[in-house]
Each structure stands twice: as C-alpha cells, then as structure tokens.
Write a structure and sequence with these properties.
With about 140 residues, the protein is α/β, with parallel strands linked by helices. The protein has helices at about 15-25, 35-45, 60-70, 85-95, 110-120, and strands at about 5-10, 30-35, 50-55, 75-80, 100-105.
Length: about 140
C-alpha cells in the first residue's frame, strides 16, 4: 500500500524542513512551498492527499490559498498548521474555507499525524485542545 501524499507550505524554511522531516517516515512528501501562491501551484501540480498549510505567509496567506483551492475544486484535504489557536480563524477555516483540520505548531509532535489520519478517514480535527472530532 502506498503512503499518503502530503504537501507542506510554510514561509519559515526551518519550520518547513522540520515538518517535512517529521512526516517523511509515514507519508510521501510531494511538494514544499514557502508562500500561498506556491502552495496552490504545488497542489495543482502534485495532487497530494493532504496539504499542511501555514496561515500567515507572504504573497498569499494560507486562508486565501485554501479558498483558491476550494474554488478550483481541488480534492486535497487541508490542515492548517499555525502558531496560534484563534477561535475566529478556526471557525472561518471550518465554515468558509473548507479546511478539514487545524493544528497549533507547538502541538505538532502530538497532534499533526493524528490530524492527518483523521482527515484521511473523512473526519475533521479542529478542537484547540488537540482532540479530534469526526463528522
């Protein structure tokens, strides 16, 4: 069985590399991007199962990138990996952007793989305390 395909977008090279290295054993990393526009292009070119997407990025932020992918009817599931648990951003990500998950960077090691597995199984991962919630 092939590994799930993952794309990652973050404007901080050290974070981008750390996330890729953290996920590489369990997932196939198919695209890396340092801004939202490159993330959209990477998803369209590589067609990953999941996009791990930072929110605050140059050129195009993660929210706008997610909206573009939704408008393009991309089947790629989106998990935001961000620095803060802002309830308004979380609600916008779920209701208006179509993201399936939200993980706080400080909880990456404990939550990110679980979030990926959850969304790949059709669930959502949005609770700021790190617990998953299935649809």
């Amino acid at each position: 069985m092939s590994k799930p395909r993952i794309a990652i977008a973050d404007d901080h090279p050290e974070v981008l590399n750390r996330v890729a290295k953290f996920l590489a054993d369990e997932f196939e990393i198919v695209a890396l991007a340092s801004d939202g526009a490159a993330a959209v292009n990477g998803v369209l070119a590589s067609r990953p199962d999941v996009l791990i997407l930072d929110i605050a990025m140059p050129e195009m932020d993660g929210i706008e990138a997610a909206k573009r992918l939704r408008d393009l009817r991309s089947p790629t599931k989106i998990i935001f990996l961000t620095a803060a648990a802002d309830p308004e951003v979380l609600l916008d990500a779920w209701q208006n952007v179509g993201a399936q998950g939200y993980v706080i960077k400080v909880r990456m090691r404990s939550d990110l793989v679980l979030a990926i597995r959850t969304v790949l199984e059709g669930g959502t991962f949005f609770l700021p305390d790190g617990h998953s919630k299935s649809n």
